[in-house]
Amino acid sequence: MALWSGRFSDSPEESVREFTESISFDKRLYQYDIAGSIAHVTMLAESSIIPAPDAVEIKDALKKIEKCIQDNDFTFTSELEDIHMHIENALIDAIGETGARLHTGRSRNDQVALDIRLYMRDKADDIVKGIKALQAALVGQADCHSDVIMPGFTHLQHAQPVLFAHHLLAYTEMFERDIQRIVDCRKRFNIM
Fold first, then answer.
1. Residue 105 half-sphere exposure, CB side, CA atoms within 13 Å?
2. How far apart are CA 85 and CA 90, in angstroms?
3. Among the listed residues 29, 189, 186, 28, the one whose alpha carbon sits nearest the alpha carbon of residue 117
4. 1 — pLDDT class (breaks 50, 70, 90)
5. pTM for the predicted model, two decimal places
6. What is each CA distance from 88 to 4, 49, 64, 169, in whole angstroms?
7. Is the per-residue pLDDT at 116 higher than 90?
8. Contacts (Cβ under 8 Å, ≥6 apart) of 23
9. Residue 33 above 60 pLDDT?
């Protein structure tokens, strides 16, 4: 069932469904959507908005859904548009109307913002790991070629000779500044 299907008597044309779906690319957000949903339902129970047993049932079902997706035992379809609808639908299919309580007190926009922030945080960490591996490789190459001399350059013109190792280590320092920028951005990802 499409998000806005209650307003229309007929199903949308295939071209409309293709234009409005995002599941083809946002399915990669499933673990973040589920983590955010587990945190949300925990808050709902702790605030006495929903009964604690319902929260436990919802969390257990969400973990099973996550396992199905991880095991490639989950069907994604453009009719359900996005990852949120897929998970919500699977949850309601699994535990009935109790699953619908998950959406209490939050909008789909809240879910999207949270999912993207969690995703970006993970990707920032991955990028930092990659840069550190590159830095280690540069240091290794600098060590292996510590006696190689090359022409230095200034303003695209030849300058004094320098060690190739020093040239590589200069890039290592430049990448360190990139790491600092990414770490600084990551702090902002945590602000909702």
1. 14
2. 8
3. 189
4. very low
5. 0.78
6. 15, 19, 13, 51
7. yes
8. 76, 77, 78, 80, 81, 82, 83, 86
9. yes
